[in-house]
Write a structure and sequence with these properties.
5 helices, 5 strands, 26% helix, 22% strand, binds acetyl coenzyme *A, glucosamine 6-phosphate N-acetyltransferase activity, transferase
Length: 168
């Protein structure tokens, strides 16, 4: 099971300290220093995402770290450049039903446009899913456009139900 990094402390969880895998990318939990490694350039490819100040980024990072293993953001760092090439998150929802069952929610998966088509997105998603499974979740769910159904099918997901939204 992955462990989110504490805001300042080094951490020896899965992926941390390990070298890049065969494709030249290391998947590991988000770190504070990732602000300068292109984290927001990545997120902007997902949705309009103006860069945050360092103060705002640190504050949000601390909030998420306080959630422990119930909120994990993974990133893929390219060994050759030290830049981030992918990111994604999984949140653990605590339910009353299903004997206080846990549900993983996959969110904000993105691979840099220059790194797509090499299997990195699938590798990242599978790591996030494994984290949820290790946490005891009985399922992992996500929302996506119909164009992405093929990608998530490759990651092992099946289509289920209908997504609805109410925006403010
Ligand atoms: C829950 C959410 O976060 S939904 C938001 C998802 N993110 C986005 O839409 C942001 C923009 N898009 C991206 O960042 C990327 O294109 C991603 C994350 C969708 C895919 O990342 P990639 O690294 O390119 O995917 P990857 O190379 O791992 O593809 C794995 C398999 O899925 C297939 N695949 C990838 N994208 C698609 C697609 N849009 N439609 C159908 N199949 C796809 C690949 O062909 C590959 O299949 P193969 O093993 O037979 O060759």
């Amino acid at each position: 099971m992955e462990r989110p990094r504490a805001p300042v402390a080094a951490e020896a969880g899965a992926g941390a300290g390990a070298g890049a895998e065969g494709d030249g990318y290391t998947i590991r939990p988000l770190e504070l220093t990732d602000l300068s490694k292109g984290f927001f350039d990545l997120l902007a490819q997902l949705s309009p995402s103006p860069p945050l100040s360092e103060e705002a980024f640190r504050a949000r990072f601390a909030e998420l770290a306080a959630l422990g293993a119930d909120h994990l953001v993974l990133v893929a760092e390219e060994a050759a450049t030290g830049r981030l090439a992918a990111a994604g998150a999984v949140l653990v929802e605590r339910k009353f039903i299903r004997r206080c069952g846990l549900v993983g929610h996959l969110e904000d998966v993105v691979v840099d446009a220059g790194a797509r088509g090499r299997g990195l997105g699938e590798r990242l998603v599978r790591r996030l899913v494994e984290h949820a499974r290790g946490r005891g979740c009985y399922k992992v769910i996500l929302n996506c456009t119909s164009e992405l159904k093929g990608f998530y099918a490759k990651c092992g997901f099946v289509e289920k139900n209908v997504q609805m939204g109410l925006y403010f």
